[in-house]
Specification:
This protein is of the alpha+beta class and 232 residues long. The longest helix has 32 residues. Strands 1, 2, 3, 4, 5 and 6 form a 6-stranded antiparallel sheet that branches. This is PDZ domain-containing protein. InterPro entries: PDZ, PDZ_sf. It comes from Persicirhabdus sediminis.
């Protein structure tokens, strides 16, 4: 392979890399421009492309999307950029939701039904929910969660619910249960609350939602202040 060919080969490779990286750098701006396209389908497609790119590159995407939002004159594009900003800023700060097990439950106090512990009795399981996938069964009696038993001062179901609410989707929990006359150890991965159940249990999520809204408002004010300070 002669020197002239080698130089041509390396030049071609470098040019291809530069062209590809330049095209990738331009894509987000192209998507932002598409948000005011006459075609609803193209506006939706551009929104989804920005969402996927934004979640994968938060440090890079948030400043660019904010600048696009600040400069945008089209009401439709501005509305979409605002929604994306809010979604991504909250996603960056609160990437996971409260944990969900997927059971209904009753209390069993120590001594009831000849049980030696305070327990959570499994009354039903959501089909294909975290508890179902983790091996819990109807009438299992949960007496330990992550190495901690349930004390006497608060109902076992209340303690169980609070401990799970303090964890997040994707977290692993270890349970010890009584099944018949056997003690069994199970490990399951917490899931995400189904939207329908989340609406039914709205109060449980209101505090977190308020935190998210407040965090985004403060973030937006900080960006506006920074931009104002940069202006001559």
């Amino acid at each position: 392979m002669n020197n002239a060919y080698m130089r041509w080969f390396f030049f071609t490779v470098i040019l291809a890399i530069f062209t590809a990286s330049h095209a990738q750098a331009e894509e987000p701006q192209i998507w932002i421009d598409q948000l005011s396209n006459e075609s609803y389908a193209k506006r939706d497609q551009a929104t989804e492309q920005l969402r996927q790119w934004g979640k994968a590159t938060l440090d890079e995407s948030l400043p660019l999307i904010y600048q696009g939002y600040a400069k945008e004159e089209s009401p439709e594009a501005k509305r979409r950029l605002f929604g994306l900003l809010k979604e991504l800023v909250i996603f960056q700060r609160f990437p996971r939701e409260r944990g969900y097990v997927g059971i209904t439950m009753n209390d069993i106090r120590k001594g009831q039904m000849d049980v030696p512990y305070n327990c959570v009795l499994v009354r039903s399981l959501m089909p294909d929910g975290p508890a179902f996938r983790g091996g819990l069964q109807l009438d299992d009696k949960i007496f330990e969660l992550n190495g901690q038993k349930f004390h006497d001062q608060v109902a076992p179901t209340g303690q169980f619910g609070q401990r799970v609410a303090d964890m997040f989707e994707g977290d692993e929990v270890t349970l010890k249960v009584l099944r018949g006359d056997k003690e069994i150890k199970l490990t399951l991965e917490l899931g995400r609350w189904p939207e329908e159940l989340k609406r039914q249990s709205r109060i449980k999520f209101e505090d977190v939602q308020h935190l998210k809204e407040a965090y985004f408002k403060n973030w937006l004010k900080e960006q506006q202040a920074k931009q104002a300070n940069l202006q001559p």
